[in-house]
């Protein structure tokens, strides 16, 4: 069976990263999030010709950037974005090429990074958006980060604002929560974390991407 990719966008505190990780584990494939950003930052130190040479060499050999990410640290459970969004077109271009290379060469799960937009139109890509009521997100954030309700509320607000601005900028005006961007939009409180994983696997079967 050909490789496939599941992309995830998610509101902060919804459990979207947990769902993505559980899905990848169940399917026996890699889940990529901030290691893509870390590798892109490292590669952006190369001049463009050298980066293209690495990219073309990997494509020619059928390998992917996954090998270069093996030694990089995995993302922590919760990564909040409390800083103001500042664009970096060069860094995003490296991320985009890494994501396309991964999609060309292996089955994987990719969290964030506008992956649904970058891989739009590919028949082997399923894009998922996870959202949940604010009270549910606040409670999960308080429990997982060990913070007060006030801090949880501010963290969710700031991180979701950052993600929305990031997505709008790099997709040239599209908006992050637009359901048309995704195959599935799931409410993790109503559906349940594990049940979201099961639903996504069922959809992958319907699409003929897994058996």
H/E element string? EHEHHHHEHEHHEHH
Could you name the CATH class? Alpha Beta
What count of helical segments does DSSP give?
Answer: 10
Strand content: 5-15%
**What is the CATH superfamily label?**
P-loop containing nucleotide triphosphate hydrolases
Average the pLDDT over all residues and give the rounded result: 88
Number of strands: 5
Computed Rg: 17 Å
Topology:
Layout: E1 5-10, H1 16-27, E2 30-32, H2 34-43, H3 48-61, H4 66-69, H5 89-105, E3 108-111, H6 115-118, E4 125-131, H7 134-145, H8 149-170, E5 184-187, H9 188-191, H10 193-206
Helix pairs in contact: 1-10, 2-5, 7-8
Describe the structure.
- There is one protein chain.
- The chain has 211 residues and is α/β, with parallel strands linked by helices.
- The chain is 54% helix and 11% strand.
- The chain has one domain (5-206): Rossmann fold, CATH 3.40.50.300.
- It is globular and about 50 Å long.
- It starts with a strand and ends in a 5-residue tail after the last helix.
């Amino acid at each position: 069976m050909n490789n496939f990719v599941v992309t995830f966008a998610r509101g902060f505190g919804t459990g979207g990263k947990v769902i993505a990780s559980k899905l990848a584990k169940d399917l026996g494939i890699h889940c990529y999030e901030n290691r893509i950003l870390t590798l892109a930052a490292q590669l952006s130190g190369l001049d463009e010709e050298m980066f293209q040479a690495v990219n073309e060499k990997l494509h020619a050999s059928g390998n992917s950037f996954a090998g270069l990410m093996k030694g990089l640290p995995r993302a922590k459970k919760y990564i909040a974005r409390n800083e103001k969004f500042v664009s970096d077109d060069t860094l995003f271009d490296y991320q985009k090429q890494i994501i396309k290379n991964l999609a060309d060469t292996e089955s994987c799960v990719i969290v964030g990074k506008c992956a649904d937009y970058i891989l739009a139109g590919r028949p082997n890509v399923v894009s998922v958006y996870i959202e949940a009521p604010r009270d549910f997100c606040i409670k999960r954030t308080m429990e997982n980060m060990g913070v007060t309700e006030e801090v949880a509320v501010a963290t969710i607000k700031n991180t979701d604002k950052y993600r929305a601005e990031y997505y709008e900028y790099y997709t040239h005006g599209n908006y992050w929560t637009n359901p048309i961007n995704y195959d599935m939009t799931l409410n993790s409180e109503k559906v349940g974390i594990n049940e979201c994983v099961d639903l996504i696997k069922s959809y992958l079967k319907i699409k003929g991407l897994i058996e």
